[in-house]
Amino acid sequence: MDRGTQQLPAAGRPPAWLLVLPWVTMVLLVIVQLTTPRSVQLGFAFAVVPPLTTLVYGMLGTALVAGAMGGLLMLPAIRADDVTYGDLLAFVLIGAVSVVLAGFRVRRDAQLVSVRTVAEAAQLAVLPPMPERVGPVRCGALYRAAERGTLVGGDLYDVQDGPYGVRAVVGDVKGHGLAAVGTVSSLLGAFREAVLDERDLAGVAARLDRRLVVDSTGRAGAEVTEVFATAVLMEFPPGGSEVRILSCGHPAPLVVGGGAAREVTLVPGAPLGLALVDFRAPETVTVPLPRGHLLLAHTDGVTEARDATGAFYPLAERLGAWTGPSAPADLVRAVWRDLSSYAGEVADDVALLALSTPDGHS
Length: 362
Description:
Elements: H1 16-35, H2 43-46, H3 49-53, H4 59-74, H5 85-126, E1 133-134, E2 137-144, E3 155-162, E4 165-173, H6 181-197, H7 201-217, E5 229-236, E6 242-248, E7 254-257, E8 260-263, E9 285-288, E10 294-298, H8 300-303, H9 315-319, H10 328-343, E11 350-356
Antiparallel strand pairs: 1-2, 2-11, 3-4, 4-5, 5-6, 6-9, 7-8, 7-10, 10-11
Helix pairs in contact: 4-5, 6-7
């Protein structure tokens, strides 16, 4: 699975230019002091260096910079006429406070890294990396969360092998970002159980709908919240080169290959979790996948992306001339590159899942 370059931000080693910046600033101040009249008041500028150093160095590095600055100010050739011994004492106090602040910053950064590491592990547990193959089905997946600094948003996908074949889901829950992660986790858990128990996709859809309806009612005494999702379910029967598809209010997947891309014609059903009196899954459609063809499922973050003129991204049209390899991972990466070039910054969650049957890959 490709999560791309958008990862959780973490505190790492600062770049080399930032590490030398306090020393370069100090040298420049000395040069300016030596090349200007002694009556020009530049002493205050030296006091800025230690506080700025706390953003880059720890306690030891800040102490070295503050000590070097104090030593320079003691030299008669550098010390301006307006710098008194009282000013020197103030510089010493500023340096001491800067060292203490550097210690607090280092400790805070360590705590922040720990929290972010736990958050990343939790999000990867919700949506773990997709293997290249699930049973006999080859997979390629790509996910981009709209909320910066997160790995999981309001979109979801999964592929699971079970007694009735390999089943896959691509869905989009209400909202995005961290607020939707709980619903995503609940929906994926229900899907993984239903894959093992339900004999057909209609039963899987009913289980997902029931899960969301229960979640929307909340616990006893809790405020009722509206929770719903769209989803497309796919099933690869054992030993076959076809796929069964069912859509609950979700965009239809595309069959890509042979120099063309066509959207699968589906009977759309209602989204999951609307608490309808009698949930009925829509009709399941069986679609053949010849050798070299792939099934590409996506969320609306792809087709609702716009270019500078406001035009929506024409996914089927852009894939019509696809002549690349029939590896699912290559397809989803090509779509993301083309989408990024078309729309620039994509503001919504994006999920792409490409699948090929046992006889439909090269």
